[in-house]
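User: Some background: our group keeps a shared notebook of sequences we're curious about, and every so often someone picks one and asks for a predicted structure to add to the entry. Today it's my turn. The entry only has the sequence so far, pasted here. Could you supply the structure so I can complete it?
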Amino acid sequence: MLEDRMAAVPPTSWPDSYPEGYAVVDVETTGLARDDRIVSAAVYQLDAQGEVQDHWYTMVNPERDPGPVWIHGLTSEALAGAPLFPEIADRFAERLAGRVLVAHNAVFDWSMIAREYARASATAPVRQRLCTIALSKELGLPLANHKLETLAAHYGVVQQRAHHALDDARVLAETFRPSLRMAARSGLRLPLLACQPLTEWSDGPSSPGGGSPGIGRQRSYRAGSWRPSRKRPPCPYPNPGRYVPGEQLTQGMRVAFSGDTSVDRELLEDRAVEAGLHVATSVSRLTSLLVTNDPGSPTSKVAKARSFGTPVVDEAAFMQLLQHVRPAGGTAAG
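Assistant: Of course. Here's the predicted structure to add to the notebook entry:
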């Protein structure tokens, strides 16, 4: 396509608002849950116009079973001699500092990275992230789905080792460059989101004998960690109905979330529960409010909210509303 060939060439003028550099990241993990660990990480550093400046890769000892070896190919034996995350945290940070983190489904990669730094009592030097799925949607690319291999095929980028962090990061860098230039040529506002580092984290007790748990042993979470379980007790307040734009939230209101968020989703949900709100996993006629940073997305939650007339606010507005939640039935606010 002519449009794709043009995207390979940087435009004559570049938007002043665009970032000065990017860190294209891929991490392979032991699983998808919040207590899973990184087993390998790769970073491609790109300049303002998407040209590669440097790349870096490391395996990481996850201090537990490596999980889906059939996907990432990293066995317990291969990871036994790898450095622990705290040992590579500084080198990783050097490659992220001052750059926008770019990833495919960026909320996942950012969440895993932020949690690893929190475990290491450190902070990832990332202030903004960009999801290439969101960018593809903004550009209106004619993709059958939003898998990385589909995006790679669209731009003619050949994958050599799928689910190997270094090769996935390379593929993503090579597909991000033409997307970035296409966005710059059309003056598109990049779908950047702020990154809030995690600071509320505590690991469980160490392994027997006082040492750190090795591969094959999982850490557990003691009572008092900021999120010991996803299971929540029922909301003690009745649903007062829909949120009225311009007014306060009221305890008992049903709140649903859709899409990527700047604050870790689980932490955001915890804040809502602490304020006395009911966190709903789906949207129905009883939903009081939908929180999304992408109200134009074709997700089922957004579509249902639109059909039901459910009010929609973005994350920043919701965080403001959480500061002043009206008590239910005259009781104290949570």
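Suggested note for the entry: Strands lie at 21-29, 38-47, 52-59, 100-103, 128-131, 192-194, 254-258, 278-280, 289-292, 312-313. The mean pLDDT is 85.
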